[in-house]
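Re: Re: ligand-bound prediction request (bumping)

Still looking for help on this. To restate: I need the protein modeled with cytidine-5'-monophosphate bound, output as structure tokens. Inputs repeated here so nobody has to scroll up.
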Amino acid sequence: MLQIGRKGHDYTTFGIKKHSALDKLFFSMHNACMSQKAQPIYTSGSTLFVRSYAKINLTLDVLGRRADGYHELATVMQTIDLYDTICLTVTDEPGVRVVSTRPELNGDDNLAARAAQALRQRLALPQGVGIELDKRIPVAAGLGGGSSNAAAVLLALRHWWQLPLTPPDLLAIAASLGSDVPFFLTGGLALCEGRGEHVTPLAPHWPYAMRWLLLLKPTISVSTAAVFRSLPADDYTDGTYSRAVGAALQTKRVPQLKDFHNGLERGVLERYPEVAQAREDLLKAGAAFVRLSGSGPTLFAPFSELASATRVRLRLHEKGYETYLTRAISPHVENIHFF
Ligand code: C5P
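Reply:
Sorry for the wait, this slipped through. Here it is.
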């Protein structure tokens, strides 16, 4: 049985190798730097605070349905400055307990709880974990909140308890929790393939014209499984959009608007009139471009100027919409490079 210690800082980094099969500019996740600083961590005695960021999907190509029931994807994701705060404490009681500002998220099913439990079981850890979750990321919204919480807990406990887990170990645990969880181990900008678990981090380059991201969360929740289940083969694409956007950003070129494609969007707009209405209202309020994030229902619109984003946001508030004004953020780098 492994006894844990509450040691200070371990900023071990792992070697980075170039990916040979993909674009040479891309890095392979399996060799990538899963920095201990991927999520900011503040410790105080036996308590540890972690930020857990949301994401948007700039693109989402669905390549086809797989034998295991999942879909083969290519998607470019970016973490954004909208985050939940997680407070971890070590407890003497065995097990994991979650208390959230959204009480419906309390319980063993919570992905953050399952992440802590997976580590305890894997390493036969005797200590229990208390998880307090101040939820700000909308739930079941296409913003990856639950997956991000799980990755944040994995990284934080590994760092805090100095757990003997290699990056591939951590990746395997993350992938077993959900398709988006591996992305959040590094965050930033990345091309994700396979089920979503093959993560190729991209350089933190971001178009100036997209400095501000206005998010609109329609009141409905959308089940990712239901969206994938009803997806017709007509909406499958071959990954071209995601590769084009990934390659453009990596080389500091502004991607073409037509390449910001989300293969789930057509079906979601058709099946959920609230989302179609919200999209129309965002455009009417002055957004030049609107896209669905993941399986939705959250929509995002990029702006170069804060003043225009704010004007649009106020018009949406007058209509009673829930909105978030945010920006791209790469938790492990000082500053994103705007071009
Ligand atoms: O992996 P995760 O549990 O987050 O996925 C939720 C649901 O979304 C899956 O049960 C599956 O129905 C669908 N999904 C999919 N293909 C993916 C990812 C998710 O069909 N690559």
